Amino acid sequence: MAVPEFFGTIERSGLSTWIRESPSLFAFYFILLLHTVGLSLVVGANVVVDLRILGVASALPLKPLKQLFGIMWAGLGINGATGILLLIAYPTKSLTNPLFYVKLLLIAFAVVTLQRIDARVFGDGSLSEASMVARGKMMAMWSLLLWIGAIAAGRLLAETFRYLTYADILKGKA
Amino acid sequence: MNYAHLHLLLNHFPIIGTIIGLSLLLLSFVGDNRDLRRSGLIIFAAGALLAIPAFLSGFGARIMLSRDPGVSSALLERHEAAAMLSLWFMETTGGLALVALWRSHRTPRRARWHLPVVVLFALLTVGLMGRTGETGGDIRHPEMRASQEAIVVEGTLGSVVHALEPTPEKFSQAVVGSLWLWGPLMFLHFVGLVLIVGTVGVFDLRIMGFIKQLPLSPLHRFIPWAMAGLGVNVVTGLLAFIGSPDRYVTSSAFWLKMLSLLLLGLNAVAFYLTGISERVEQLESGEDAPMRAKLIAGSALLLWLAVIVFGRYIAPLSDTLPPPAY
Description:
The complex is a heterodimer. Chain A is mainly α. Chain A has helices spanning 5-12, 14-21, 28-53, 68-89, 91-95, 98-121, 129-160, 166-171. Chain B folds into two domains: 1-166, no CATH class; 167-326, no CATH class. Chain B has helices at residues 3-10, 12-28, 34-65, 73-106, 114-140, 156-164, 168-177, 179-208, 216-219, 223-243, 245-249, 252-272, 276-281, 291-312. In chain B, helix 8 packs antiparallel against helix 14 (291-312). The radius of gyration of chain B is 21 Å and the shape is globular. Classes of the chains: A mainly alpha, B mainly alpha. Chains A and B meet through helix 3 and helix 7 of A and helix 8, helix 9 and helix 14 of B.
């Protein structure tokens, strides 16, 4: 395989080096913290909406839960930004791990599902609660499964990478 | 104050707590006294919470004492194994007590199946906690040992129980040495986190006055999901700690996370035991919660955020405290 040289180029940049090597508690670990906070916003709010659609707390009116979508999109925004920063810090580590692409794919599907629940279940104000539930059941189940899958893939990235940095590839170090 | 000091300060609570809890629970069956029963169950839940820092500080104390030639490592190991087994029973009893409290809260007169189960686990916990206390005392009190030598002496019952106790060291190696144990453990810890933060978050936000159209009584139905998440995270968190205690014990962020969790316990007491939860649960769509409830909900949200922040910083701050020594 041709050695993807731009991994090295990114890692030598000032931003990448700072995130990776700064001893400051506000460098790498702060970004990771924000990524975790973003995750709990997106998936936490999703869990409540999905569980409600699937029948938990069925006496709870569904329509006001629309306000939770704002929290979810905010969480997604945080995680898009912090995810890119983490990728800039360790491009080799992520991009040489097949699991990273699985994670991206799962998130893509989960976000599409989120958008569809937002539009098709909560977007139509004329729907009764019963028809909202009927429309949303399948999507809510997929949403839960996809987010759990994304968390699993994300967590295991820390344990399954082959190369940490570009220098590791050059050394042929597995 | 050092780990041994902290351990001695904390370790009597779960032992005596389970005895008091069990006594109240058994007494409550005389004349079907529901207040006594509730008190017993609450004491089990509190004991399960307090047993965690008692257990954790014990690891620090063990690392300290293991450098002391006057202390028998066989006695230390026996105490550690006894503590591990009794901890799991304590946590199970506490979890079951919470289930029983929840059930009696929803349907006061029905579904009594769980009470005998709580009594059974409480009995086993009292026995195992007693053994943990005794084996702990043996380490430093030759006057109470069965033998004057610092050696392990087991009676018949003791040897049977000992066969069931885990070997701490083997366990640590299994957790740290295996990628396929650590990864799934942390994955489950995150799933638990999401369950807690999502359900508790929406509940607290509603009390604080956001999403006010939601009536509170049906929203409260999400709390068992938060409890399930908490259960998953207590188990996975303790397993992670047992896997590499040295890393956690010397991390200031770890102790701040534990402190935040204890404060969340107090927060739950302030919400559920002062009558404020009954008032909040009656809130219909659009109604405003009392100021006191808003303060409790807001501080709970901040404390959960603190748990996440300190949890994330355990690793980078893993050598900020001096290693246990004296």
